[in-house]
Design goal:
The complex is a heterodimer of chains A (581) and B (266). Chain A folds into 6 domains: 188 residues, no CATH class; 74 residues; 78 residues, no CATH class; 80 residues; 73 residues, no CATH class; 45 residues, no CATH class. Chain A is 13% helix and 31% strand. Chain A contains 9 helices and 30 strands. Chain A has a 7-stranded antiparallel β-sheet. A 6-stranded antiparallel β-sheet of chain A has the order 9-10-13-12-11-14. In chain A, strands 20-26-27-28-25-21 form a 6-stranded mixed β-sheet, with no helix packed on it. In chain A, a hairpin with a 2-residue loop joins strand 11 and strand 12. In chain A, helix 4 runs antiparallel to helix 6. The longest helix of chain A has 15 residues. Chain A is flat and about 90 Å long. Chain B is mainly β and 266 residues long. Chain B folds into 2 domains: 129 residues, Jelly Rolls; 98 residues, no CATH class. Helices cover 6% and strands 41% of the residues of chain B. In chain B, the strands form 3 sheets. In chain B, strands 1, 8, 11, 12, 13, 14 and 15 form a 7-stranded antiparallel β-sheet that branches. In chain B, strands 2, 3, 4, 5, 6 and 7 form a 6-stranded antiparallel β-sheet that branches. A two-stranded antiparallel sheet of chain B has the order 9-10. The relative contact order of chain B is 0.20. The chains are: A alpha+beta (581), B mainly beta (266). The interface between A and B is large, with 42 and 40 residues.
Chain lengths: 581, 266
């Protein structure tokens, strides 16, 4: 059996397992590297909180598994059948390339129960008490494992079949953020996707610098000395950008002595006093692609393992849609990484989300689906669950004019309009006319992350192309058999009576998936949220050399490649010309 | 007019709840135990841990006493004997374990449901379950050997054997245009209840109340409602969460009624 073969069966039995991956010492108390001398009831439980030799504590992990109580649960697998009710999940959601979405949140209630400590307490035979007669599982667990925050919570989604293997489960990973209880005989665990590590209280970028000025420096001075002695080599790079007060400077460094180029990034050359903090800045000069900046923010800044970054996929997305998305800007003081990523997402138009299943941070640029791309159809006849499809038209998210403020003047100041040197305005006058939407709907974007008009024009153009008509958000449910037809940020076509043409006939529509939620009926149904996908117009890739002219090209070529049309905007056969985005 | 049956017929229901392995004075040993599958797991009443030997062939779990003990049943639950083509049988020794006799013939179950094997009373100081497997090794979640509680009469009209229709929650999905597009099931064990009326109050006090004390502890039990004609309809039961056991009631000055509601697993 496998997840994919079981999910399509009638009579499948969904089964969810929770795994808590907690820290655990690899050593044996009082043996080898562990010098603890405690005996009997005073021995540790191989956790940091109970450790008697913290200097030699050797952290590894131990996974505790909990499952739904089922009479058909697999026998011989070490897991406690104490999941109380459903595993509640609110899935991660994206915005369709207009900012950071929501983090996935998972909540699960696990019943408390008496426990004998076997396979948990490695020194059970040396205790003078009977563990089953003392306390409860969670009471003991929480006091032995108080450092659960940020540890991994795994969710195994699968089915009970003829055979059992964890390999047959789809495994999602989250960070534990909270455990409530023991209350009313249970604990409630809350976990979120790993992008919570970018939250303000978790991580900021750049990190706080601890060096300060040894002596006053006057306005225009080009040399300064760091204190305390030695901090230059231990904390500051050989060169870069720093800020003192509201002034940004570039520098080179020799030991604790800085050579400064004053008043950078539009800031003002001022005097600074002894003791003022010398803060290292994160600066990007316009040669760094946003993909590389994201990597820096997530791996260097938020401390995500580099394995979470699917470099090849990111490079593909960069080459295809984000090649011109170079970042020019500076973080003069530590800022919330989440906030910075949200800004980058909005101004360079990409979605970023935690893929719980592949355990990667995925990226998808806002882009039209190329003609000819394969898009799965979900129909009212065999996929969309009855009564589940809801349409929400977001009239306030329709725009006839996009204003992009860019080229920030003074990076020490805020992002008010008058702190930007340039503005790009793109307008769709045909839609704002009295025959159509009869008035303007203006979206304003302020970007401190580029100074090039080309970036601003691209941002305004793509936003207008995407949101010139009222976008629709659609939610619906499907049976889990169709799970494989969807992927986050991918396209899907919906064929339902709720989408009709002028005559009332069904008219299949394309949408972009912005949320896939296993929700509370994992393994049985999935809740999907989509956003209007279509860009207005016709898009395709540049054709390779040797491709036939439009008039003699195949339908496949017309679907995949763009051709130059007549000055009327049409081809000779009357079909619409392609657009460049 | 109700009929009081003073001695049980072979087909009357039985409940196995007494267990020599948990009796005071028992010394429990096992032939072998795999890491993470301690022998204690087989008699701690929990359904989430298991005893597993390390070798194929014969393996055993033994309870030894300083004095003789009476036993007339063995129950095995939470096992996967059928998956491993394994057999089990109860054995006893009257010479300190030098030789062993079968209390009952070996059983090779065809499924992994709860087993209850009963026999006439045997008295011995050493009891054990003997497991035999050829190629792969099974796990056992619970073993009980002891004196069975035998009802003085058979189940009454209206009794619903709990294992006949397992408690399965079904979930189905219908498409927008009405087609059946999928279905799932959640096996939630069994739910059961029974009532026995016009019982001898002395039996109720001497036999039923001790069981109710076990039931309220709250520990599982094994119910075989008709070992004669429906010996395969055996379930492991326990008290429903939040439930309260019903007190026996007098139906007249001479007789009492009992009842029980429980949940469990086949």
């Amino acid at each position: 059996m496998s997840y994919d073969t079981e999910k399509v069966k009638i009579g499948r039995e969904p089964f969810t397992i929770i795994g808590m991956v907690m820290d655990y010492c690899s050593l044996t108390a009082g043996v080898g590297a562990c010098t603890a001398t405690e005996t009997g009831d005073n021995k540790c439980f191989n956790t940091r909180a109970t450790c008697n030799d913290t200097a030699n504590y050797d952290k590894t992990t131990k996974e505790y598994k909990f499952c739904q109580p089922r009479s058909s649960m697999p026998k011989g697998e070490a897991m406690f059948p104490v999941i109380d009710g459903k595993v509640m999940k609110a899935g991660t959601s994206t915005t369709g390339g207009t900012g950071l979405g929501k983090r996935a949140v998972l909540r699960v209630k696990l019943s408390d129960f008496p426990h004998h400590d076997r396979d948990i307490d490695p020194y059970i035979s040396e205790r003078t008490y009977t563990a089953l007669d003392r306390g409860t599982f969670w009471g003991k667990f929480l006091v032995r494992n108080p450092y659960y925050e940020g540890r991994t919570l795994k969710v195994y989604y699968g089915y009970i079949g003829d055979t059992f293997s964890f390999n047959d489960f789809e495994i999602q990973e989250y960070d534990i953020v909270d455990i409530k209880g023991v209350n009313n005989g249970a604990v409630e665990i809350t976990a979120k996707d790993v992008l919570v590590r970018t939250y303000d209280r978790k991580s900021q970028y750049p990190s706080v610098s601890t060096g300060s000025l040894l002596a006053n420096i006057a306005a225009g001075a080009t040399s300064a000395t760091l204190t305390p002695t030695g901090i230059g080599n231990s904390e500051y790079p050989a060169s870069g950008t720093l800020s003192i007060g509201k002034e940004a400077m570039t520098f080179t460094r020799s030991a604790d002595v800085l050579t400064l180029t004053r008043a950078q990034w539009g800031t003002e050359d001022k005097e600074h006093k002894a003791g003022d903090t010398v803060q290292i800045c994160a600066a990007w000069d316009g040669t760094d692609n946003v993909i590389d900046v994201l990597d820096e923010l997530l791996v260097t800044g938020a401390g995500l393992p580099s394995a979470y970054i699917p470099t090849a996929d990111w490079t593909t997305e960069k080459d295809l849609w984000l090649s011109a998305a170079n970042v020019k800007g500076v973080l003069m003081k530590p800022e919330s990484i989440e906030k910075v990523i949200a800004e980058l997402s909005e101004v360079f138009m990409f979605d970023i989300w935690w893929n719980e299943t592949t355990q990667t941070v995925d990226i998808k640029a806002l882009s039209p689906e190329p003609s000819g791309a394969t898009i799965n159809t979900l129909s009212e006849s065999n996929s969309i669950i009855q009564g589940s499809l809801k349409i929400d038209r977001k009239s306030k998210d329709r725009y006839t004019e996009i204003r992009v403020y860019y080229d920030k003047s003074d990076f020490s100041d805020d992002d008010k309009e008058d702190n930007f040197s340039a503005i790009q305005i793109s307008t769709d006058i045909s839609r704002s006319g009295s025959d159509r939407y009869d008035g303007n709907s203006i979206k304003t974007v302020k970007s401190r992350w580029f100074d090039a008009g080309a970036n601003a024009a691209q941002l305004a153009g793509r936003l207008l192309a995407r949101f010139s008509d009222t976008p629709e958000t659609v939610t619906f449910m499907i049976d889990n058999k169709d799970h494989g037809k969807l992927e986050m940020a991918g396209r899907v076509e919906l064929d339902s009576w709720q989408f009709q043409d002028f005559t009332g006939a069904n008219e299949a529509r394309k949408f972009q998936v912005i949320e896939i939620n296993e929700g509370n009926e994992a393994g049985h149904e999935i809740k999907i949220k989509c956003l209007t996908s279509s860009f207005s117009g016709r898009y395709a890739f540049i054709a390779p050399d040797g491709t036939a002219n439009y008039s003699s090209a195949t339908e496949s070529e017309k679907g995949s490649y763009s051709f130059v049309c007549l000055s009327t905007g049409l081809f000779a056969d009357g079909s619409e010309g392609y657009k460049i985005i | 007019m109700a009929i009081i049956v003073s001695t049980a017929s072979a087909g009357n229901g039985r409940i196995g709840y007494k267990n020599l392995f948990t009796n005071a004075g028992a010394t429990v040993t096992a032939s072998t135990e795999a890491t993470g599958f301690a022998k204690e797991n087989a008699y701690d009443w929990f359904g989430f841990d298991w005893w597993k030997p390390t070798a194929t062939g014969d393996s055993w779990l033994r309870a030894s006493f300083g004095s003789t003990q009476v036993a007339n049943y063995m129950a095995v639950w939470g096992h996967d004997l059928a998956d491993h083509a394994a057999s089990v049988k109860p054995q006893y020794s009257t010479n300190g374990g030098s030789t062993w006799q079968d209390a009952e013939s070996a059983v090779s179950p065809s499924d992994n449901d709860t087993l209850l094997i009963s026999w006439a009373d045997i008295t011995a100081a050493d009891w054990r379950i003997l497991v035999n497997c050829a190629t792969t090794i099974p796990v056992i979640g619970g073993v009980q050997i002891g004196e069975v509680l035998e009802f003085p009469k058979s189940m009454e009209v209206g009794f619903s054997p709990p294992s006949l229709v397992p408690n399965i929650m079904m979930k189905t999905a219908r498409s927008e245009n009405g087609a059946f597009i999928g279905g799932s099931q959640l096996s939630q064990g069994v739910i059961g209840s029974f009532k026995l009326s016009t019982l001898d109050p002395a039996w109720v006090r001497s036999e039923w109340i001790p069981f109710i004390n076990h039931f309220q502890s709250p520990k599982p039990f094994v119910l075989a409602w008709d070992v004669n004609t429906h010996s395969d309809e055996v379930v492991l039961g326990w008290a429903k969460d939040g439930a309260k056991a019903k007190s026996p009631s007098y139906s007249s000055t001479l007789y009492m009624n009992i009842s029980l509601e429980f949940e469990g697993t086949p």
